[in-house]
Amino acid sequence: MKTPSNGPGADGLSDPLRVIRAATVILDHKGVVTGWSPEADRLLGYRAQEMLGRPVDAVSAGSTAEDGEAWLNPHCSSHRVREVTLRHRSGRLVRVAAECRSLPDTVAGPATLLLLTDAELLAEWQLQQAMLHGMATQSPVALTIYGTDLRVAWANHAARQELPGPFAQYLGRSEDELYPGSQVLSAQHPPSVTQVMRTVLDTGQTVVDLHYRGRPPADPDREHVWSLSYYRLEDEEGRPLGVCEESVDVTDLHHAQRRLVLLNEASSVIGSTLDLERTVQELAEVLVPRVADFTAVDLMGAVLAGREPDARSGDLRRVVHRSVREDLPEAVVVPGHRADYPEGSPQWQCLSTGKPVLNAVLDPAGPWLRDDPVRSARMHTLGIHSHMVVPLRARGVTMGVATLMRWRDPRAFASDDLLLVEELAGRAAVCIDNARRFHREHRSALTLQRSLLPSKLPTHAAVEAAYRYLPADTEAGVGGDWFDVLPLACGRVGLVVGDVIGHGIRAAATMGRLRTAVHTLADLDPAPEELLSHLDDLVSRLAAEAEEAHPSGVEGVVGATCLYGVYDPVTRCATFARAGQPPPALAHLRQPVEFLGIPAGPPLGMGWLPFESAEVEIPEGSVLALYTDGLLTASDGDTDTGLERLSFALAHPDRPLEDICGTVERVLLPDRPRDDVAFLVARPRPLPPENVATWDLDFEAASVRKARMLTEERLAQWHLDELAFPAELIVSELATNAIRHACAPVELRLIRTENRLVCAVSDHSSTAPHLRRAKAGEEGGRGLFLVAQLALRWGTRYTQDGKIIWAELSLPGP
């Protein structure tokens, strides 16, 4: 499209066939040129002296006009514009728009004025005129022109639709006067559009897509949002004439964008944890105040308990509610209590059908409110006018309902609000169901863990103990590490920590089997290295079974490590053996922490190296620490650094053991350890020498009587005369069996602990007696049966030289 020839800028909007702009040619009544303007020279290339006196047909290219008439009729009076083809002086053809006008008769007779212009220029002008007309009368974009005083000077049809009544009453008014209380929604611009227009008028800088919120005079009850654009209007000399405002109502788009933003925010906010109540709280925080003035979320009681819900039960529990006011004036039910709704209420319908209920205009005289006077009075007092209930459904199951109300926001809930809340409720419902399932699985896992690990350490006279257990799988709450304090014969105690490869339920299940095996083996009272050998065989069998069941998966990997030790309060020594575990630490009162030199054995399940044990004297007042390797590598993965930190944490063992555990946890463990961690700290308690009595017995029958006498005398010294009869009987039977069926030497030992009396007879035979029921005609075979009836427990413990048969009696109360 060609640029207009007469001046720049706004000249393009001028009529190209106006005399002052068009090429003009004057013809006499014979069609001879009598006048030729400079514009005609520029248009066709002929000078005036070349054309004057010549017929105008000299520039014709042979075109014909409409209806078969010549393109030129000197006697025409019509102002109709024709398009003709003329020949330029250079020979090229020029498409020209021509208009023929009759002039008053002259002395020479009638004359005709031809107005000629470029046809393309005329077409462009016609389009511009059509555009201007369309913008003024048909365009959906509201156009308003403000003068240099920034007051309304003109507005098109679309803009006048927002201004009821005669438009003349709005002329001369500013934008801020037309839309009082409106606000610019952009921090990059002034809060008033009048200020924005002043900047545009002063600088000429265009402003595009400025969002503006207010209430138009034609719809004062509803808030609208517009997208505004401003540019300066100038004359031909570039002087400002005013500012033009283009306005598009984007209220629906704005609300849609807000909904998208809200949905996007909700996707990252709702369900941030697997805590069910926190998930419901997050839903309420998203809904209030951006969607509703009040919301209440009620869940089925079964959901809160982790069970599969049944909407037919009607057992709704208020979990959370939220309001635009902190005093929660709308709330009728306290969180944690049952939320009872009358039959026929929107909540009741929502549970029954699984579909939302929208009361855009709440009827205070509705039948369900008549049956619920408390809620009815509360709604009437606050002026609640719009009510919506949406089900919380996931995987086809209704888990509860969300109730939304408006009383401060004058707008009623609409279908768009319902769609938004349904989307939010659907996302929240999935998160709630995930939290419910996690709660159920977590509870099952914790039940499993509690059944596999000691709920509390047993009280034992020989040691005081404390522990920490932190699984790497914090969501499941279970792991493969374990620990134990095991009461053994003759006042001794077993200390054990172990670690199974892997984390979670599978590792915990394997750990449970190994811990049970350790309990069973410890009851047989083997040496620590023998116990690990038996445990090694068990792990090998478990690994073979798992490999057969899962030949190509990690489920087939079974491995473990273990540290087992026995502390004897009589000898004040501990014997340890380890299989792949780090050595125990011994914290002295006045010396640096010592890591005991226990021979390192291979992890359990290797089956190719023997285990060795070492005996260590435990000074009084010191503390033993047994731990899995996850403790040392929890911080930065460096074992040496972990040992240094552990030494620091164990210093000053005269502190309470719980304080020591807390220090170890703070110094060595991050919030989320990468590996399961278990550690056990124990303060051994040696028995005072006066609580132990030991005698060598001659290998003859008369020694049985002597054993009874020695027992009676010592019990008298210990003020345990009440136990004289059962203790003498037990000692008599044990000594008799040793002298009759075993080998010399024979030794009798009595041990008094805080709540037990231990009677033990040792010999140098590895043959153990067995409890049996003697037949009617047999004279013997009833000794061990009597011992079993009198003692709390009894058993046999093998030593390097033979065995020890022992029995325990409970000390009388104070």
Please, could you describe this protein's structure?
The chain is α+β, with helices and mostly antiparallel strands and 814 residues long. It has 21 helices and 32 strands. The strands form 6 sheets. A 6-stranded antiparallel β-sheet has the order 7-6-11-10-9-8, sandwiched between helices. Strands 18, 19, 20, 21, 24 and 25 form a 6-stranded mixed β-sheet that branches. A 5-stranded antiparallel β-sheet has the order 2-1-5-4-3. A hairpin with a 5-residue loop joins strand 10 and strand 11. The radius of gyration is 51 Å and the shape is elongated. The chain starts with 22 loop residues before the first strand and ends with a strand.
